[in-house]
Design brief:
With about 500 residues, the protein is of the alpha/beta class. It has helices spanning about 70-75, 90-100, 130-135, 155-160, 175-180, 185-200, 220-225, 245-250, 300-315, 325-335, 355-360, 370-375, 375-380, 390-395, 415-425, 440-450, 475-480; strands spanning about 10-15, 25-30, 30-40, 50-55, 60, 65-70, 80, 110-115, 140-145, 150, 170, 205-210, 235-240, 265-270, 315-320, 340-345, 365, 400-405, 465, 485-490, 490-495. It is globular, with a radius of gyration of 23 Å.
C-alpha cells in the first residue's frame, strides 16, 4: 500500500548508482533530492528524518512508460487471453473452453470479451461463421493485441448495432468505438482494476505513465486521485475530438490541474494518422503482399492544421505513425507547422527520413517489445526491408530523442521487458536476435526510460527505483526481470520489498 505523505526527511543510505562501486547516501526532503553524500558521512538531518539502509543496492531515476492505454490494460487482465492462439481456430477453441467453465463475461455486462489475438500471422482467417459456431447466441467480442481490430459474433454485432461482413471484423475507428463501449463498466470496478495495475507497475520501478486512453481522460484521473490513487504520476493525453473542450478549459501540455495532488498533468495531443501492422492498415510506401498500402486516416494538410492549432494552444503533439509513408507524412507536417513533438511508434521508417527526426527536434516514442512480438508479421509484410523496421539505433543515430514504452495492453506494462528487447533484440526463446544492429546499449535504454535522467542528481524529483543489482552489469536474463526492492515518487514509497 502506498504511503500517503512524504516524511519530513529521508535518507536512502548506502546505495550505489549504476556502474559505480562506492556507496553514497541520498538525502530527500520536500519530494526532491537535496544532497548526495559519501555513505556514512556525518550530516545534519531535519527533525523526524528516517534513515533506511539499502545495503549497497543500486538506485536509478524512476522509470516511465511513455505510451499506455491504462484502462484497457487494467481491463485486459480481467478478460480472456488469446495471445497464445496460433490460429483463428485455436482462438475460437479458447473461447469455447472458457464458455464451458464458470460464468465470466470479462466484466462487460453479459458480453464475452477476449483480448490479444494476432491474426496477421495466422494461416487461417477469422470468420463470423467460426465464432458463431462456438458462441451461439452469447454476445462475444475479441479485441486484437494492437486494439485496431475487433472480431465479433452475430449476437454482439446485433447487440451493439454494428454491421460486419463474413469476416466478423471491425477495423480502425469502428473498432475503437466498440472497444470504448465494451469498457463502459461501473467506475468503482474499473478504478479498482486500475489501482491494482498501477501498484504492479510501481513494483517494477515505474513512477509515471503517459496515458493515451481514447476518452476525455483528465476528469477520469481526477476522480481516481480523489479516491486515493497515488501509485504513479500520470500525463493524461487529449485527442482531437476533445481539443476544443481542452482549449476552452485553458488546458495545455504540462499543466497540473487542481485536485491532481501533484501526480496528474495534461499530456500530449494524440493524433492517429494510420493503422497498424497486425491489421495491415499501417500506411506504407510499398503495397502489402495482399494488396493495398494501408490507410492514411488524416491527410497531410489536415495534420498540418492540427499541429498549428496545437502549437497555438500550448499542446505537444504526439502523432501515431507506424508505416514508412505515414512517418514521412508526419515529418512533413511537423516541418510545415514549425513545432516540435513526438512520433508514436515509428515502426517503419524510410532510410532518408531518420536524420529528419533530429533536424526537427522530435522524440521517437517507441515500444521495443513490439519488435519481437511482430517480427514474423514484419517479415511477412515488409519482406526485404526489415532492416529499417523497429529501428531504434537508426532513430538514435539520426538525432531523435528516444522515449520507451509498452503501448499496454499491446505489450505488458513492464519496463524491463521493453529495455531487454531494446538491448538484446531477443527474448530468450531460442530464436536468434532480430536485427541486432538496431539494438541500444543498456545505458541508452535506461536513459530513454527515465526521461533523460541518466543518474540521480541533486535537485531532481525524488522519483527513484532501488534495484538488487547493477543494471549495467547483471546478465541479460537478470536484466529482463530485474528485482526492484523499492520505488519512490516524490520521496514517498509506492513499493517496498525487503527494505
Amino acid at each position: 500500500m502506498a504511503e500517503t505523505t512524504a516524511a519530513p526527511g529521508l535518507v536512502l543510505a548506502s546505495v550505489r548508482q549504476p556502474g559505480g562501486t562506492i556507496p553514497c547516501d541520498i538525502h530527500i526532503a520536500d519530494g526532491a533530492v537535496t544532497r548526495i553524500t559519501p555513505a556514512g558521512a556525518a550530516a545534519e538531518l531535519p527533525a523526524g528524518s528516517r534513515i533506511i539502509d539499502l545495503d549497497g543496492r543500486y538506485a536509478i531515476p524512476g522509470l516511465w512508460d511513455e505510451h499506455v492505454h491504462m484502462t484497457q490494460w487494467a481491463l485486459a487482465a480481467n478478460r480472456i487471453d488469446l495471445s497464445r492462439a496460433g490460429s483463428a481456430r485455436e482462438a475460437a477453441d479458447v473461447v469455447r473452453s472458457r464458455l464451458a467453465g464458470p460464468p465470466d463475461d470479462g466484466g462487460s455486462s453479459g458480453t464475452v470479451v477476449g483480448v490479444g489475438f494476432r491474426d496477421s500471422v495466422w494461416a487461417d482467417v477469422p470468420s463470423l461463421e467460426l465464432l458463431d459456431g462456438v458462441t451461439r447466441d452469447r454476445p462475444t467480442a475479441l479485441i486484437s493485441h494492437d486494439l485496431h481490430c475487433v472480431w465479433l459474433n452475430s449476437a454482439a454485432a446485433s447487440r451493439y448495432g454494428v454491421a460486419v461482413d463474413e469476416s466478423g471484423l471491425l477495423r480502425e475507428e469502428p473498432a475503437f468505438e466498440l472497444t470504448r463501449e465494451l469498457g463502459r463498466l461501473p467506475d468503482a470496478v474499473v478504478d479498482a482494476w486500475v489501482r491494482d495495475a498501477a501498484r504492479a507497475a510501481a513494483a517494477r520501478g515505474v513512477v509515471g505513465i503517459v496515458d493515451f486512453e481514447m476518452t476525455w481522460n483528465r476528469d477520469v484521473w481526477l476522480r481516481r486521485v480523489a479516491d486515493g490513487f497515488d501509485s504513479l504520476r500520470v500525463d493524461a493525453g487529449v485527442y482531437p475530438q476533445d481539443l476544443d473542450q481542452a482549449i476552452q478549459e485553458g488546458m495545455r501540455t504540462g499543466q497540473e490541474p487542481g485536485g491532481g495532488a501533484g501526480l496528474l498533468r495534461v499530456g500530449p495531443l494524440k493524433v492517429l494518422i494510420d493503422g497498424s501492422l497486425n491489421t495491415r492498415t499501417a500506411y506504407c510506401v510499398d503495397p502489402y503482399p495482399h494488396g493495398g498500402r494501408g490507410l492514411l486516416t488524416v491527410s497531410e494538410a489536415e495534420l498540418v492544421a492540427l499541429l498549428v492549432r496545437a502549437r497555438e494552444a500550448g499542446f505537444v503533439p504526439a502523432v501515431h505513425a507506424i508505416g514508412d509513408a505515414a512517418n514521412e507524412v508526419a515529418l512533413n507536417a511537423f516541418e510545415a507547422a514549425g513545432i516540435r513533438g513526438r512520433i508514436e511508434h515509428a515502426q517503419f521508417v524510410r532510410s532518408q527520413d531518420f536524420a529528419r527526426f533530429g533536424e526537427l527536434g522530435l522524440t521517437a516514442s517507441v515500444q521495443p517489445a513490439h519488435a519481437l512480438d511482430d517480427r514474423d508479421a514484419a517479415e511477412a509484410n515488409w519482406a526485404g526491408r526489415t532492416d529499417r523496421a523497429f529501428p531504434l539505433r537508426s532513430l538514435l543515430a539520426g538525432g531523435a530523442a528516444l522515449a520507451l514504452g509498452s503501448d499496454a495492453p499491446v505489450a505488458p506494462l513492464e519496463p524491463w521487458t521493453a529495455m531487454s528487447a531494446a538491448t538484446t533484440r531477443a527474448r530468450g526463446d531460442g530464436r536468434a536476435p532480430w536485427h541486432r544492429e538496431q539494438a541500444l546499449t543498456r545505458q541508452e535504454a535506461l536513459t530513454a526510460s527515465t526521461r533523460g535522467r541518466s543518474r540521480i542528481r541533486v535537485g531532481d524529483p525524488a522519483d527513484i527505483a532501488v534495484l538488487d543489482g547493477d543494471p549495467l552489469a547483471v546478465p541479460d536474463a537478470v536484466f529482463a526481470s530485474m528485482a526492484v526492492a523499492a520505488t519512490l515518487v516524490a520521496g514517498r514509497f509506492t513499493h517496498r520489498s525487503g527494505v
